[in-house]
Amino acid sequence: MEITLAPSFIQGAVSLDVKPDGIHLWRLPVQELPLFQSHCALSEKLREPAGIRLRFHSNSPFVELDIAWVEGDHFDRLFDLVVDGKRVASTSTGENTSTIRFENLSEDATQIQEIWMPTGGPLILRGLKVADGSEFSPVEDQRLRWVTYGSSITHCHGSFSPSHSWPAMAARAHNLDLTCLGVGGQCHLDSMMALMIRDLPADIITLKLGINIYGRGSLNERSFAPAVVGFVRILREKHPETPIGLITPIFGANRETETNAGDMTLENYREQLRRAYQALKAHGDNHIFLFEGTELLGESLAGLLPDNLHPNGEGYEHMGRQAAQNILPELLADLK
User: Fold this and answer.
1) Can you list the pairs that 136-139 forms with residues at least 24 positions away whose Cβ atoms lie under 8 Å?
2) If residue 154 lies in a helix (H) or strand (E), which one and from where to where?
3) What residues pair up with 56 in beta bridges, in sequence order?
4) What was the pLDDT predicted at 145?
5) Residue 54's pLDDT band (boundaries 50, 70, 90)?
6) pTM
7) In this structure, how many other beta carbons lie within 10 angstroms of the beta carbon of residue 173?
8) What is the assigned CATH class of domain 2-138?
């Protein structure tokens, strides 16, 4: 039985572009795409479906998703099936197919099922099939919304599977509706990102900042802290009391002491982020929080950084557990 994929089934996307060939998934407002394409790499990263998932009730013994890759050969990308918050299966398309199929499913229609899209590999949703006569409906979702922005370390290409990225793990631990804005290599406090996050519905927001800026030397001692302040102040235009967590970089190996093109070490960026936090607090922002990235993954766990920069699957799971224990509870408590 063919299912029409209405927007009510799709979560974690910022916008959907419905075309004759299917539903194109975007983590930016597609009507503003030309503005994001001032740096094409940013818009390309926001086309990757990190954190996007289908969410539904069904008693079908199987679910079959028909997709098309936007470009390239991505048949090794993993999709996860999550049932009531727990991953029960992972699969990928084969080399000569565009079908994702999960079988031997529970026929309990009260369960909440989710299909998590890959963290990378832009794709198009073309259709979905379930068993003839089975139930299939969207989930009425009133969960709190979490928007998180960061680098490739938030994008999480190296996670074991899409539902085991650190934001996905932390979100599932607290039953939050996640919008993941990890943008590999492109987290440079762009004003278009601030405007987009400002306009998104959000109950809590986290900004994990510094590593891409270190890598490119795109901001320095003069410009980084003011850029953070300006970014947060833009968010405050529509989120005046939303808890916002600033997260400093995780351990960065040689970057801790080696200066970049802006004559800054990674620790210098942490210091500047602390300075921005203090400035916002001094100005009366009582809903701004600071968290140290080295408490998510510090030097003692450097072995979980196989390239001395990005965590491996185990590293991302560790970060997810730490964020669930030490970051989200403080932000959620601020809502009460």
Assistant:
1) 136/1, 136/3, 136/56, 136/57, 136/58, 136/60, 137/56, 137/57, 137/58, 138/6, 138/8, 138/9, 138/55, 138/56, 138/57, 139/55, 139/56, 139/57, 139/112
2) helix 152-155
3) 113, 138
4) 98
5) very high
6) 0.97
7) 16
8) mainly beta
Mean pLDDT for all residues in the chain: 96
- pLDDT above 70 coverage of the chain, percent: 98
Report how far residue 285's alpha carbon sits from residue 196's, in angstroms, rounded to the nearest whole number.
21
How far are the Cα atoms of 155, 269, 277, 296 from residue 256, in angstroms, in the given order?
A: 22, 10, 21, 16
Tokens of 327: 């970051």
User: For 112, phi and psi rounded to 5 degrees?
Assistant: -100, 120
Q: Average pLDDT, stretch 74-79?
A: 82
Residue pair 55/12 in contact (Cβ under 8 Å)? The answer is no
Which CATH number is associated with domain 145-333?
3.40.50.1110
Q: Is 258 in contact with 206 (CB distance < 8 Å)?
A: no
Measured between alpha carbons, how far is 177 from 143 in angstroms, rounded to an integer? 6
Q: For the chain, where do the domains classified as CATH 3.40.50.1110 start and end? A: 145-333
Q: Where in 236-275 does DSSP place strands (E)?
A: 244-247
Task: Please count the helices (runs of H) and the strands (runs of E) in the chain.
Answer: 10, 17
